[in-house]
Amino acid sequence: MLYKSSLKNKQKIKEDNLRHIAIIMDGNGRWAEKRGKIRTLGHKEGFKTARKIIKFAVENNIEILTLYVFSRENWRRPKLEIKALMKLFFFALKNEIKNLNKYNIRLKVIGDITFFSEKLQNYISKVEKKTLNNTGLILNIAANYSGRWDITQGVKKIVKAVQKELLDINQIEEQNFSQYLSTSELLPVDLVIRTGGEKRISNFFLWQIAYSELYFTDILWPDFNPLDFQHAIDYFITRERRFGGI
């Protein structure tokens, strides 16, 4: 990653309270197929795009960037494609750790990582610990994640707390339910971007995006560039967020 800071948009973004952006990175496989290539090459190009988008987020002082890289439903894909994705994930962790620290980025991985190999789990833990004290962008990677899983595991935590008499059932409210989700340490999501032309959430942040602005684009993820990212931000800036009020 080459995070050379231009900071040309940071003041406007700050004024409009755009603090947490989440992206559903869709279209890698279709991008490759349109070019007569194997789908795994699309994922490699998608990784290059992710680096550019992270660079943009750093330049513009975005506080949190969540990238939806692998859903629980993605295990239904061909085994060779899954194997290639796991290798790419490990490659990214191994090769980007120096840049994460250099540019003050904290890495956080959410999702049920117990499905991954022990080697990958250990490296995720290693990179999280190595970047724990960084105070710049929080790069939140959703891997083997789903919104329904997140809510379900949150309910399990609440049940255990009630059983141990650490929590009274009458204390469970919307405001504190979020504390039991995998995103408990994060700010609410302000803007969700989905590339690839589909106009659905696909079991992503079901609880966390109740009042998020949603931006859909037909651009396939490998073709998504910083200018496209800026267009999504410009859209957000035009929105009037009332949160149920007038």
Automatic annotation (TrEMBL):
InterPro entries from the UniProt entry: UPP_synth-like, UPP_synth-like_CS, UPP_synth-like_sf
Reactions performed catalytically: 8 isopentenyl diphosphate + (2E,6E)-farnesyl diphosphate = di-trans,octa-cis-undecaprenyl diphosphate + 8 diphosphate
Molecular-function annotations in GO: ditrans,polycis-undecaprenyl-diphosphate synthase [(2E,6E)-farnesyl-diphosphate specific] activity; magnesium ion binding
Similarity field: Belongs to the UPP synthase family.
PANTHER family: DEHYDRODOLICHYL DIPHOSPHATE SYNTHASE 2, DEHYDRODOLICHYL DIPHOSPHATE SYNTHASE FAMILY MEMBER
HAMAP family according to UniProt: ISPT
Highest taxon of source: Bacteria
Amino acids binding substrate: 27-31, 39, 43, 71-73, 75, 77, 194, 200-202
UniProt gene name: uppS
GO CC entries: cytosol
Pfam families: Prenyltransf
Designated name of the protein: Ditrans,polycis-undecaprenyl-diphosphate synthase ((2E,6E)-farnesyl-diphosphate specific)
